[in-house]
Write a structure and sequence with these properties.
Layout (H helix, E strand, L loop, with lengths): L11 H14 L11 E6 L5 H12 L3 E5 L13 H11 L2 E6 L4 H8 L4 E6 L5 H14 L8 E5 L6 H10 L6 E5 L16 E3 L11 E4 L16 H4 L7 E3 L20 H20 L1
Parallel strand pairs: 1-2, 1-3, 3-4, 5-6, 5-8, 6-7, 8-9
The chain binds phosphoric acid mono(formamide)ester.
The site of phosphoric acid mono(formamide)ester (CP) has 10 residues, from α2.
Length: 285
């Protein structure tokens, strides 16, 4: 059984296989997962992760049990995460879990008889977001993740997509990291690469950024710093730079930038479907 709890569970070879398969097959439907059932078990809100796993499973011929609002499940009656996982692993072949607590997916994996995919555990990790973020970079950088300057901006303390992506990009050669946030939302020390640049002023790093990874401030985790990039700032990025965002966006990127060829955040969403189709096929077939 192959759980996917952290970026650390994915080797470079595993990801390259998924990315190459995603480039080749995109969202081509097939019946390879006919008869298989996926449980989407979401204790926190989601649009992209939940729906793209749903769509990916159906496009591969499988079915989905959608528990997108645990308020209407037996969790409300006091059922523990462990008992819910035991129940759903008896009814399905794989479980995607999103939960507000760090380590919830690991807890689930200890009692599950089917693979657990971490769909986001609190401020912890979001490995399938990293799979699609990595694919976005891979497909925009001549099939490589080396020699890049990446600037992360926003809530770097609570953003799980940032933590997972930093882990991934730290494995590759000659990457440089800039972290832009106010003091109270700095990237945690255990994640921060030894060599990096930290500032609270994006203007210091824009012109030497290949990938600008923008994140929302996580109000639901107690953060309260409002910020918005403006079009003049974004236009100072190089012609070959790209702007990524895991979404949802609030005010961080102006809508007028959406048509710019450097804006990749809606492509990321589409790539999420392709990567999750390849991932489910790998785990379940
Ligand atoms: N990027 C992401 O995880 O989006 P959702 O919260 O909509 O799933």
């Amino acid at each position: 059984m192959q759980h996917l709890l952290s970026v650390n569970d994915m080797s470079e070879d595993f990801m390259i296989e998924i990315w190459k398969d995603s480039l080749k097959n995109k969202d081509n439907p097939s019946n390879i997962l006919k008869g298989k059932i996926l449980t989407n078990l979401f204790y926190e809100p989601s649009t992209r992760t939940s729906s793209s796993f749903y769509s990916a499973m159906v496009r591969k011929g499988g079915s989905v049990i959608p528990i997108n609002n645990v308020k209407f499940s037996s969790v409300t009656k006091g059922e523990s995460l462990e008992d819910t996982i035991i129940a759903m692993s008896n009814l399905s072949d794989c479980i995607v879990l999103r939960h507000p607590e760090i380590g919830a997916a690991t807890r689930a994996s200890k009692v599950s008889s089917v693979p657990i995919i971490n769909g986001g555990d609190g401020e912890g990790e979001h490995p399938t977001q990293t799979l699609l973020d990595g694919f976005t970079i891979f497909s925009n950088n001549n099939l490589s993740l080396d020699n890049l300057t990446i600037t992360f901006i926003g809530d770097l303390k609570n953003g799980r997509t940032v933590k997972s992506l930093v882990k991934l990009l730290s494995r590759y050669k000659n990457n440089k990291f800039n972290f832009v946030s106010p003091e109270n939302l700095r990237i945690p020390e255990e994640i921060r690469p030894k060599s990096c640049f930290e500032t609270n002023n994006i203007d210091e790093v824009l012109e030497r950024t290949d990938i600008l990874y923008v994140t929302r401030v996580q109000v639901e985790r107690g953060s309260s710093h409002d910020y918005a990039l403006n079009i003049d700032q974004l236009n100072r990025l190089g012609k070959k730079s790209i702007v990524m965002h895991p979404l949802p966006r609030v005010n961080e990127i102006p809508k007028e930038f959406d048509q710019d060829s450097r804006a990749k955040y809606f492509d990321q969403m589409k790539y999420g479907l392709w990567c999750r189709m390849s991932l489910l096929e790998k785990i379940l077939s």
